[in-house]
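Morning run. Coffee first, then this:
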Amino acid sequence: MDRLPNDMKVFGLLAVLLCVSGMSGRAAIRLESGAQQVGLLELYTSEGCSSCPPAEAWISRRCGGLTEQRSIVPVTFHVDYWDQLGWKDRFAKVEFTARQRLYSASWGRGSVYTPCFVFNGQEWEGWFRGETPAGGRSIDVGNLEALIDGDKVEVRFTPIARSKEYVAFVAPLAMQANSDVRAGENQGRRLNHDFVALSLASSKMESRDALFRTVLQVSMDGARAMAVWVTLDHSLVPVQAVGGRLE
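And here it is:
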């Protein structure tokens, strides 16, 4: 698991435009995907798992340059089932574990593990073989926008193929976070984390003509970046994604 692939396109971001918000006095941020599909790469990890730091190091090394034009949005979800070994991961949430278990059930697996990569809703084991995900499919799926103003995130999606219902997901991300682990499998190590999901909010989108829209209230405390994606209702598979820095 220490083999690292050579190259990777990351963080789908065709434009990050800054404008001044007169209401809050702070800069509002607009993220936009463009029409071509951007891939979503999820990593399920834990500070209590000794096999996870190489996977996280790979994410950090290969997923830089968030404001550049890229084709993959990375998110790392810290799970809580390693906490029983004596070290409580401060980023772990039971809802992230539940999300991984939903994936596992959809693949017909009876268990979960870390590090576990999920690419566009499918289990991806290529990292263990030194491979690189290819990014989103080379098809137009529609434009996804996220307008971030303080704790308010407005998500707009204009799909190429209409569906009755879409769901928007918003994950504020911590960057360059550090933990000095004092117990468990990583005892005595300083772990470095990027793209760490601090929370995960979701909302069904309202349809107005060709546009699907919703507004979510999301705590930005500690967040330095953002990942946003949309799925069909009752599906884990992303249709479109976008991500970028908040600073």
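Residues 15-245 form one domain. Good start to the day.
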